[in-house]
Amino acid sequence: MKTTDPHTRQDGPVTGTDAPWHQADLVALDLEGSGAQDRDHEAILEIALVPLAAGQPVAAEAYATLVNPGRPIPVRPWIPPGLSNDVLSHARPLTAIEPELADRISGRWLVGHNIGVDWRLLHRRCPSIAPAGLIDTLRLARAYRIDAGGNSLTRLLEHLDLTATVTRAVPDGQPHRALWDATGAAILLGGLVTRRWPAGVALAGLCAVAALPDFAPTPAPDTLF
Question: How many structural domains compose the chain?
Answer without folding.
Answer: 1
